Amino acid sequence: MIRQKILQQLLEWIECNLEHPISIEDIAQKSGYSRRNIQLLFRNFMHVPLGEYIRKRRLCRAAILVRLSAKSMLDIALSLHFDSQQSFSREFKKLFGCSPREYRHRDYWDLANIFPSFLIRQQQKTECKLVNFPETPIFGDSFKYDIEVSNKSPDEEVKLRRHHLARCMNNFKTDIYFVSTFEPSTKSVDLLTVETFAGTVCKQTDSEMPKEWTINRGLYASFRYEGEWGALP
């Protein structure tokens, strides 16, 4: 149990320091174990070498920045402490099968090789199912905000979404739809602009919900949430 708690703390520390220099010596010192023993402990519990875990987590952070931000490849490589843009591109291609530039400009986002944090794997599993959703016009209004691409604690953004959801729930006694689009912000290369349309399938006659949005027909992932309002993501 003590070992699992130590590993939990190390996983959290690694996630917070992916954009800072990380060495096995730093991790050993933080854990109180020797360099050799902390690597053995990590591999025995996590079934992947510690160094490989850090490398893949950095590459996945890079993939998010490549896909969602307007940062240059050089800036991304240096911010995640790769030796050069060339070495970053080589390691990126090994994991994702294409160059960072190709990854950015694809018209789809292939998540097959994304290596998530083990912190996520330790959380309660959420049931997911695929559903075919028909083309659906909804009527409502939109709101927009900027968020840091690498934001790990989007508390203010979550509060904003809950505020709009609560308002819709008070006004309408039917299914409510939130549809979000995102693009790199024009204000900063570190920001992502998110626009969310909130509405229902019922067209309102008043002016409070004046806009229309069409949800495209297609295959969607469906997640069911049951729990406290304060824990709603």
From TrEMBL:
Keyword Transcription: yes
Molecular-function annotations in GO: DNA-binding transcription factor activity; sequence-specific DNA binding
Keyword Hydrolase in record: no
Listed name of the protein: Putatve transcriptional regulator ykgA
Cited InterPro entries: Homeodomain-like_sf (IPR009057), HTH_AraC (IPR018060), MarA-like (IPR050959), Reg_factor_effector_dom_sf (IPR011256), Tscrpt_reg_AraC-type_HTH (IPR020449)
PROSITE patterns membership: HTH_ARAC_FAMILY_2
Domain annotation HTH araC/xylS-type: ranges: 8-106
Keywords: DNA-binding, Transcription, Transcription regulation
Organism: Escherichia coli
